[in-house]
Amino acid sequence: MREKLILLVEDNPDDAELTCRALQKSNILNRVDVVTDGRMALDYLMHKGKYENFENDHYPELVLLDLKLPKLDGLEVLQAIRQYEPTKLLPVVILTSSNEERDIVKSYSKGANSYIRKPVDFEQFAQAINHLGLYWLVLNNAAKYNEENL
Question: What percent of the chain has pLDDT over 90?
Answer without folding.
Answer: 59
